[in-house]
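Incident review: delayed structure delivery

Summary: a single-chain prediction request sat in the queue longer than the usual turnaround. Root cause was a stuck worker, restarted by the on-call engineer. No data loss occurred. The affected request and its eventual output are reproduced below so the record is complete for anyone auditing the incident later.

Affected input:
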Amino acid sequence: MAQYTLGQDGAEEFERARLALLEEVHDPYTGRQFDAIGVSEGWRCLDVGAGAGSATRLLAARVGDTGSVVSLDLDVRLLEGLASDRVQVRRHDAVSDPLPQAAFDLVHARNLLMHLPARLDVLGRLLAAVRPGRWLAVCEPDFNAIAVTPSSAAWRRAWTVFCDAAISGGWDPGYGTRLVGDLEVLDLADLQVEVIARLVRGDSMGARLFADTLLRLEERMLALGARDDDLAETQRLLRDPTVIFRAPSTTIGWGRRPD
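Output delivered after worker restart:
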């Protein structure tokens, strides 16, 4: 696959902190998703694109000593500390590396597909790793509706260059909305989908997460014509608690592989 746009190289500590914010924002939805599925003692689970490992930790706590979790990522530096008798950590390219077939009670991926080419193909490969009658669970954001109030010309200019920078790096910032149709193509049994929209204050976890993501893309944005003063104003808005930030919507979906 192409180099991951938000890879750790050269920004290890910053990316660790950014992923910690991402986990704080998304872990409640992931926990609710696992509750709805009924993940429990003895399950064999696969966490693909595990990032810093919070979903892996949630799964490991649920499957107990008789279950197992395989935690995969292109860069496993933030996952290595989770390795145990219960958790296996492996380097894995979700686009090109094979997965065990029909081997898991649950295959989970969060904020992964938006960064990949051939997303429907990857979804199909994830589903093929699920045992018949068991579960696929995914979560993806959609950045298209984000906004700040009050807005400004600087925000609007920075926002459109952010989209250009994301797309040029192989990232689909609107994939969360497309995810529903892609899940329907898989003909999953008992398909459930939730779309979560949030209005939060500037300097909240969600606003700081997007501000830090912009910082990770800043060099790419400047190369595409972003203005330094626009980027500075955007950071100020996102960190101002008097501002209202419409955060990316989040689509979470889960369903069973047909028997």
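Verification: The first strand starts at residue 44 and ends at 48.
Action items: add queue-age alerting; document worker restart procedure.
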